[in-house]
Structure prediction request, 704 residues.
Amino acid sequence: MTKSQADSLLHVAEGLRKDILLSCPELKGSLSKDFDRLALYCRARGLAFFSLDLPHLDSLLIKGLEVGRLCLEGPLSHAVSKRVRVPRLFSGLWLRVFNKDSSIKQDADVNAILFLRQLCCLGKKIAVECSYDRTQATVRAYHDIERGLRPPSLDWNADRLDGQQDRCSLHLGESCDPPCEVDTLNLQEETTKTGCPSCRSESDHQGLVRLLDQVQQVADLVSETFDIYDPLWYSYLRMRDSKGIGFMHGPGAVAERVKQWDKSHFLHWPQKLQNVFPYEWVGKASPFQTDVPLNHESPSRLLAVPKTAKRPRLIASEPASHMWCQQSVSRYLGDQLRSSFVGDFVDIKNQQKSRDLVLKSSLDRKLATVDLSDASDRLTCWTVERIFRKNPSVLNALHAARTRYLRDDISKVPSFLKPKKFASQGTAVTFPIQSIVFFCIAMGVTLDGEVSIDAMRRWRDQVRVYGDDIIIPRHGYERLLRVMDALQLKVNKEKSFVNGYFRESCGVDGYKGYDVTPIKPEKVVANSPASCQAVVDNTNNLFNKGLWYASDSMRTLIPTRIQRAIRIVGYRDAGYSGFTSYVGSKESHLDTRWNSRLHRTEVRVWQLSVTPAKQTRDGYSPLLDFFASTHSYEQARTVSKYGESRKTRGGLHWEPLSHHAQHDFDCSKPASRVSHKEARTNRRNVPRSRNRSSDCGRRVIESY
Prediction:
């Protein structure tokens, strides 16, 4: 499998070489040598060359765009010569962006930046499991972060937060250590030797205190703006609007390792959850239900899921009862964000405004894009309890739905933890809580002077937060670093941009107003129905990016029998699945028939389908799933969306002819059914191109 993926990536890279030559024909000789070297590296290193070595070159590129000079270090960074300080691999493209002395050009070629990034990131996100050593290193780093976190002021291990110390006395400024008293002469000498003083000066300390106080004021305004969270009342409001009851299960696995359709049969319901979310009201489908879950809190499970070949992503699989309640809190927070002034800055459902700001700020450089390292693993209960100190109802719900224990089965020695972090990835409330906390920090470091809602609204087009992706004005970047450090959060400086013309956030990379985002396919081997669809999507993504030869190379990775049964879809027929084209739809290469029952012309196309497998369910859990689903209860027919287990399959299906393709379709027997045998005979008469695909499949040539 690994060898096949490496060969497939090399095949797509060859198509990308043709795209580069169309833009830079003078690089024909150097690119030929580069791709000979690329094939040699691929045979020697295999998939690791695409997933580890080439992405390192991309890191050097974006770092050079930020600081204005290329720093050569690591694999594949051998310079051409002592006079030409750019990497030897793809040196022709590098010299279109940087001068021979490695300084950035004033008129750097944007197309060269895109080509370099696409070559280097082609295998960065490829779906492959990390090695055992890399997984263990990631788990050790996870534990190291946990050991260094600040413990909360409130007792989050208790069943209740009510009745504990006065929450209004909590303040983010408590994280700021007092300045050390040192002799001025010694401080001067230390600054001369190391370039920075060993201890924070009094003025720096006062500045940090002021920033933390501004963040606290913003947090108080935000939390006071939110309504009181009553799970029963909020559930009633959602039912009144036919949006379900607010409680629901997540799509992933749970700690009890039960099937998706058995999640509503709760095995455990601890007292901590019962205090805020009574089982009789939120966990039962009927008052006649007599079974009662055990008063026991199951620990969440630490899981490693694929992210990149460099390191996996660690998430927590929550107990079913906790996830059920966390989903309600998550929906409440989303509704509050949309209905309050915070919705002008945070939209947890849509990234488009952040993406637009990325391209705009890459041109005028007025804004900085900030990314955090291990954001969820470093966000502590200490910080969360201070952000929501003015809204006890939200804080109590977050405490009740939070899992107190974590079981680590990945390490060499399995263990249990009592995390000091608020929640790991995989928890339903992690993303909205991150967005709220980081918005408070971003706005607090942006404001100067008065902290009010009107003052914050003046920055609505310059401050955006989506999870841990932050966009702020440039003057707030250094302040943000100080506040994040005080709250034990860490800014990823390698992926944060403030000085150059490069900006990156929410999946969009911009340089001088141009989109230079590379396509990062996860699958390139079409060995299953899902992977076939993934390769089709990758083909269209490359095509829409303008990399038409690379798109054509990606398309040839799909089995020929499937290629022949996929539509060519124009931009006016966006609702249909198939290969994207700019010259309109084309379906004459497909088998056709006249459906006399539905009175329409149909074509036989390949597509994914969901095959239901009979799954008998009884008891009250299907009824609870029915209440949790979003529908009109008066017209509902399905008892539960988990009533059947479903399997994804790929095959040929008869679908109606697209609207715009009908104008070009000539049916020989419009009033009668065209037999499948006649359709196959007609199809054999269609002239074939030499690659055994239809002429309309040569979308690259037509588009050029």
The longest strand covers residues 600-613.
